[in-house]
């Protein structure tokens, strides 16, 4: 029987590429996102089983996710690729609040819904997995993107908490925290970030990490080295560095 995956944030970038790759590998895939015309366009290409328009910032989003799971006939993987962020040196409050709403509240709302669904269906699903795109931006506080960096750190810790809770509750729910470097998507369009990765290449790394059961995956090896070096920098020095584009 084919495995079943829900891809949240499948309307562009990494989420879209992961949805297409999972479908090509034989998964039954249900997709979700805000932009219904993009969901319908992806469905029209074939390979995707069903879709649901979902805005993760809406209080109705959990019920809509459960509806999509029912359409798909169950779920083995919940993949979360819904996020926003800006460089915000001027500290525009509206941008900071929108980032918190999507990457903090929306993320928690959807991941908890998926976790609770798996918790109540674990007897018939012994290999459940939640995989989420966070970012290397959660490694250290980035002054050029305060809310983005801080919410990514929140996501890193939240997934670690859920992994621990699953073990404490003896639930067969595995967690994969995916931390890409800079990817050529709408999120960083027009920026001059170095070492930009292609979404389709990142998608291959992600699916490999999911299928091999990775708990944390930094993409790619160059960013693995960068993250290692970042962690060695003490706070007093880090806050004196100018890290921007």
How would the blueprint of this fold be written?
Elements: E1 4-8, H1 13-24, E2 28-33, H2 36-44, E3 50-53, H3 61-72, E4 77-80, H4 93-120, E5 128-133, H5 146-168, E6 173-180, H6 199-211, E7 216-219, H7 221-232, H8 235-238
Parallel strand pairs: 1-2, 1-4, 2-3, 4-5, 5-6, 6-7
Structural summary, described in words:
- It contains 8 helices and 7 strands.
- It has 245 residues and is an alpha/beta fold.
- A 7-stranded parallel beta sheet has the order 3-2-1-4-5-6-7, sandwiched between helices.
- Helix 5 (146-168) links the parallel strand 5 (128-133) and strand 6 (173-180).
- Helix 1 crosses helix 6 (199-211), helix 3 packs across helix 4 (93-120) and helix 4 packs parallel to helix 5.
- The longest helix has 28 residues, at 93-120.
- The protein is globular, with a radius of gyration of 17 Å.
- The termini are far apart.
- The model has no long low-confidence stretch (mean pLDDT 91).
Mean pLDDT: 91
Write down the secondary-structure element order.
EHEHEHEHEHEHEHH
What is the structural class?
alpha/beta
Approximately what portion of the residues adopt beta-strand conformation? 15-25%
Amino- and carboxy-terminal Cα gap: 48 Å
Taken from the alpha-carbon principal axes, the silhouette is globular
Largest sheet: 7 strands, parallel
Helix percentage: 40-55%
* Residue windows where pLDDT falls under 50 for at least 5 positions: none
